[in-house]
Write a structure and sequence with these properties.
Blueprint lengths: L2 E5 L4 H12 L3 E6 L20 E5 L5 H8 L4 E4 L11 H20 L7 E5 L2 H4 L30 H19 L6 E7 L1 E3 L10 H11 L5 H9 L2 E6 H13 L7 E4 L2 E4 H8 L15 H7 L7 H7 L1
Parallel strand pairs: 1-2, 1-4, 2-3, 4-5, 5-6, 6-9, 7-8
Antiparallel strand pairs: 8-10
């Protein structure tokens, strides 16, 4: 039985990834920043095959604790960067754990003999930090693919910028380590929607669905989305977990980065669907899922499925 370590495995996306690997018969090791707060991870122990699950404390900015966590892991999924739309101290709250945490992880993983496969859960924000807005110099009907040059908007939210720099660190490592001894694959989900597996109230993804449903704008970023009725690319959280699993268990993908996406809808249409109503406008395909479909065999659920699940 192989062991998979899931950094951030108790979060919104991470919980689904943990569930997927447990269902597939793996021994799973999940990280938490604080073992003294079981409310953050206790829902995982209600999952099927939870007897094969352990929870370990981890600080991704500390190489020693990273080394201890990665020990004996055959597969490692890095899904542990904080998703925040606003931060009082972006450097401490977002950039340090996201960027330096990724750099530390790469160094420690390369020194851990048991590691055979690493999957980074990146973000559409690493490809386009202006998301959900479009890249300014692209035409309105541009179909974004993995081949596009990543776009950095210095005015974008800290989370998107941090994901951009973390992704750049991964790309640099892959380019400078053609044979690192293990495979590295990245997946870049668009707006991840769906029903959480826990009752936690600190999930930004879940909170964003609540805000869109009730037309609440607590900060300028969300207000901007309402003001411009922006088009948001959506993917189901369960599809993200499936994509991570397939990326982790398919050989010969070193250096690949896969967009995980379903459809794009205007915020006004998302509000309707989150309230159990039909959208007015038709969906568009703004971010291509062709590579994930071709090489991972992915079939993505329509956007209304995760929105209805949450509603």
């Amino acid at each position: 039985m192989q062991t998979v370590g899931i950094i951030g495995g108790a979060g919104f996306i991470g919980s689904y990834i943990t569930q997927k690997f447990l269902n597939e018969g793996y021994t799973v090791k999940v990280s938490t920043t604080d073992l003294a707060k079981p409310e953050k991870y206790q829902h995982l122990h209600q999952l099927f095959h939870a007897k094969n699950l352990t929870t370990r404390k981890l600080d991704v900015t500390n190489k020693a604790t990273l080394g201890e966590f990665l020990r004996d892991c055959n597969i490692v999924v890095h899904s542990g960067t904080p998703f925040q739309l606003a931060a009082e101290n972006p450097q401490e709250e977002v950039f340090e754990p996201t960027v330096r945490g990724t750099e530390n992880f790469l160094k420690v993983a390369s020194q851990t003999p048991s590691v055979q496969k690493v999957v980074f859960v990146a973000s559409v924000g690493a490809l386009n930090t202006a998301y959900p807005m479009l890249v300014p110099h692209y035409p309105a009907d541009h179909l974004y693919t993995e081949a596009d040059e990543p776009y950095l908007d210095p005015e974008s939210i800290p989370y998107a910028q941090a994901k951009y720099y973390a992704d750049q660190a991964v790309r640099t490592f892959v380019a400078t380590h053609p044979q690192p001894g293990f495979e590295i694959v990245s997946v870049s989900p668009t707006g991840v929607m769906g029903k959480p597996l826990s009752a936690r109230e600190d999930s930004t993804s879940v909170g964003l669905q609540y805000l869109i449903k009730h037309k609440i704008a607590p900060n300028p970023f969300v207000q901007m989305m309402f003001d411009h009725d922006v088009e948001m690319a959506i993917v189901s959280v369960s599809d993200v977990a499936e994509g991570v699993f397939r990326a982790a268990t398919t050989a010969g993908l070193h250096g690949r980065n896969y967009l995980l996406n379903s459809e794009s809808y205007k915020i006004s249409d998302m509000t309707l669907m989150l309230n159990g109503k039909a959208p007015i406008n038709a969906a568009r395909n703004v971010y291509s899922y062709a590579l994930a479909a071709q090489e991972l065999g992915m079939q993505f659920q329509p956007a209304y499925v995760p929105l209805n699940e949450w509603a």
